[in-house]
Amino acid sequence: MATDIELHREGPIAFVRLDGADRLNAIGTHTCEALAAAVREIEADRGIRAAVVQGTGRAFSAGADIEEISGFAAPADFARFVHGFTDTLELIEASPIPFVAAVHGSAFGGGLELALACDLRVIGRDVRVGLPEAKLGVLPGAGGTQRLPRLVPRGIALEMLVLGQPITGARAYELGLANRVGDTAEDVLAAATELAHALAAGAALVPQLGKQLLRDTAGLSVHDGVEVEREIATALFDSVDGREGFAAFVAKRPAAFAAERPAAVLAERS
Length: 270
Description:
Blueprint: E1 4-10, E2 13-19, H1 29-44, E3 50-55, E4 59-61, H2 66-70, H3 75-94, E5 99-103, E6 106-108, H4 110-117, E7 120-124, E8 128-130, H5 144-147, H6 154-163, E9 167-168, H7 169-175, E10 180-182, H8 185-201, H9 205-217, H10 222-237, H11 240-251
Parallel strand pairs: 2-3, 3-5, 4-6, 5-7, 6-8, 7-10
Antiparallel strand pairs: 1-2, 8-9
């Protein structure tokens, strides 16, 4: 059976769960379509402020569905699959919602690429993660070659890509690939949920425009990046939550930020 996606909401937090424990949450075409639909449903609910992505059973995800891929008759079939997979991960990356990956079990190939597309990652200390595609004579095709070297040193990324050897969660945390580390699956989910609630408690435009700022300035010089930063900082200052935050600071009281996400105050740059 194809891995399905289970979506439920707890207050301002959406939980997105890969539901295919019997096949280690392998990601196939159906999974990508269901995950994309879940992301769109989350974005449509202004009361949702953050999302946690998790796996069912002992793995976060073993990666792309090899059974489906092995049945492809032509390169065009594989190209369509990869296109759908990457489009789905780009939805997560570009979403105004901050996504936190709770990597409680192994994450290989497409499973790790899913975690890389999330904004923050919490990982089990003894969990193994990696991009083993090199052992099959190929390279990752769902963003792994692009997102990994943006999170860890280039030499480390190249080693992981061309050798396909996994690393532990503890090593991933040391390298900056993870934001938090936990000893048990319960610890990982608890830490991911805590991060999500911390995001939800703040001003909604801060993570939204923070994500946009990092995307828009990734290839710019510091000077040009600062120009974009000034524009976003000014927009945030003039927002409802921005004015509330400054007023609360002056009055020495907790800020009462809006419970729902407002519309974006700036358009995405091309």
